[in-house]
Amino acid sequence: MAIEVVTGDITRLEVDVVVNAANEYLQHGGGVAAAIARAGAPVVDAESEEWVRKHGPVGPGQSAVTGAGGMPARWVVHVVGPRYREGQDNEGLLRQAVDAALDRSAELDARSVALPAISAGVFGYPRAEATRVIAQAVKDWLERHPGQLERVLLVGYDESTAEDFRRGLES
């Protein structure tokens, strides 16, 4: 079982699951969500709309699964991280999103998962803090679930985000 930090485009990685930092309605309008929707077109958008029609909005601690369309991945697991706000348990909510993504990936019998910096974009979570929380949540999940996943990639779109993930793993 390995945690790796990589820099690059999450939509091009050869993994079983790509995790999407989504909004509650799976409307993939910006950031990593838009990139995933473009790369997985038209499957990701169509299956996202169908999921919301059937189940309603994706809540905290929940995940939605769609196919990956044209990406090398098999599935996209959509989770909703917190919109960063003073006075709420931002870290707890972000950990809940990471757990939901990894739980669902394990249910799919995935062996490899790629996670972006959930909530660190348009949701306003300070990137260094978000990457630390995500890295620690992944480590904690893997300790609680030995052997369920072989590889988890923490994906920084740019080198500075990847470096924040590296620092987060060390803390």
Molecular structure report:
The protein has 171 residues and is an alpha/beta fold. It has one domain (2-170): Leucine Aminopeptidase, subunit E, domain 1 (3-Layer(aba) Sandwich). 41% of the residues lie in helices and 18% in strands. It has five helices and six strands. It has a six-stranded mixed β-sheet, sandwiched between helices. Strand 3 (64-67) and strand 4 (75-79) form a beta hairpin. Helix 3 packs across helix 4 and helix 4 (127-144) packs across helix 5 (159-170). The chain is globular and about 40 Å long. The mean pLDDT is 97.
Could you give a short description of this structure?
The protein has about 170 residues and is of the alpha/beta class. The protein is built from five helices and six strands, in the order ββααββαβαβα. α3 (about 90-105) crosses α4 and α4 packs across α5.
Spell out the helices and strands N to C.
EEHHEEHEHEH
- CATH C-level class: Alpha Beta
Q: Could you tell me the mean pLDDT?
A: 97
Count of strand segments: 6
Strand-residue proportion: 15-25%
Q: How many angstroms separate the termini?
A: 19 Å
Strand order of the largest sheet: 1-6-5-2-4-3
Q: Work out the helicity level.
A: 40-55%
Structurally, the number of domains stands at 1
Biggest sheet, open or closed, and with what strands and sense?
A: 6 strands, mixed
Q: Just name the CATH architecture.
A: 3-Layer(aba) Sandwich
Number of helices: 5
Shape: globular
CATH-assigned homologous superfamily: Leucine Aminopeptidase, subunit E, domain 1
